[in-house]
Amino acid sequence: MDRETRPLPPGATIGILGNGQLGRMLALAAARLGYKTHVYGPDKDSPAEQVATASTVAAYENAAALIGFAAAVDAVTFEFENVPVKTAHELSSRLTVRPGPKILEIAQDRIKEKQFFAAIGAGTPAWAIVNQRKDLDSALQTTGTPAVLKTARLGYDGKGQAKIKTPGDADAAWAAITGGKTPAEDGFAVLEAFVDFRCEISVIVARAADGQVVPFEPAENEHSNHILSSSFVPARIDPATAKAALAIATRAAEALDLVGLLAVEMFVTASGDVLCNEMAPRSHNSGHWTMDAGGVDQFEQLVRAVAGLPLLTPVRHADVTMVNLIGDDVNKLDRYLKDESARVHLYGKSEARPGRKMGHVNLLKTRGR
Ligand code: AMP
């Protein structure tokens, strides 16, 4: 429920569900605007609690801890979309939660997400619901091959996904995503046509409680092992494609009646068609370039939306490539720290495990230089 229309005054506390790096950067942006932050999440020694005003380390299902958290904050947002919907509902019965729980419900489920994209007239790769192994064969008729089988819920960075190059791969793909168990409920998985895309882009839009929508420019994204490795702006797409992508993200935010940020990941095909892959109602790794390339950044824009402040129009003054520092990439730090064009952001994680996002660097190419 979004009932709060008065702006949060300076000194108010924004509650953040999730205490990873996105929560950390959100807390830093909130502090700039005079807000306190209280982060809530299951992980000890988290990146966010190092910079937030207060921290609760507890499970998302811990009712007593949630009641204490709700009493200590003035509004709530989240840094990742897999917070249990029940938790978001419970909090929203007590105070303003932006974006609202209904949006989480859609963003947590690839099937609901694809149905939503269809409802707003946004294209997706051909897809079909797969409840049981036997559905996979008919689903392959819909998508053709190659295709990718994905769990509908709780997948990220390529987890819960298996590629099907030929129909003969179906058994192995099913075994890979089910772990050999029969799914207990319908809506377990979705099969998607594998898109031979020209590039991947994402659009992040901010939307305020009064309906003001402000998009960031599309970023072009490159992945390695299913994890985002770099994002750059401007994306190598023509103006018509950029316009179509911005229109989709704007339409999605409006249809969801979202207050906050929405990131929509899309494939651009050789013919310039834009197909939606997935969306996240929060700040997004592919938007970290906004922190240094000019104007308001995604985290400040989210704080503004949550707090009921006016949104700003971002004006980019540099071309930029954001490079993620994943695992051992932090060993390249010395080089980046000497580079005048590099803005380094580290997340305060002590152990550099493979696949772990340790920080990012924005490499700026100032116009005219
Ligand atoms: P996801 O977890 O759905 O964001 O997938 C992670 C990455 O896998 C995407 O950013 C793409 O690079 C790739 N991928 C996922 N689905 C598809 C698809 N249907 N066609 C082509 N590439 C895909």
What does this structure look like?
The chain is α+β, with helices and mostly antiparallel strands. It folds into 3 domains: 13-97, Rossmann fold (3-Layer(aba) Sandwich), CATH 3.40.50.20; 126-193, 2-Layer Sandwich (Dna Ligase, domain 1), CATH 3.30.1490.20; 197-366, ATP-grasp fold, B domain (D-amino Acid Aminotransferase, Chain A, domain 1). It is 27% helix and 28% strand. The chain is built from 10 helices and 17 strands. The chain has helices at residues 21-32, 63-72, 85-92, 101-107, 110-119, 133-143, 170-178, 239-256, 298-307, 333-338, and strands at 13-17, 36-41, 54-57, 75-78, 127-130, 147-151, 161-164, 189-193, 199-207, 213-215, 219-224, 227-233, 260-268, 274-280, 318-326, 342-346, 357-366. The strands form 3 sheets. Strands 9, 10, 11, 12, 13, 14, 15, 16 and 17 form a 9-stranded antiparallel β-sheet that branches. A 4-stranded parallel β-sheet has the order 3-2-1-4, with helices on both faces. A hairpin with a 2-residue loop joins strand 11 (219-224) and strand 12 (227-233). The chain is globular. It starts with 12 loop residues before the first strand and ends with a strand. The mean pLDDT is 95. Bound molecules: adenosine monophosphate (AMP). Adenosine monophosphate is lined by residues 125, 148, 155, 158, 192, 194-195, 200, 223, 226, 265, 277-278.
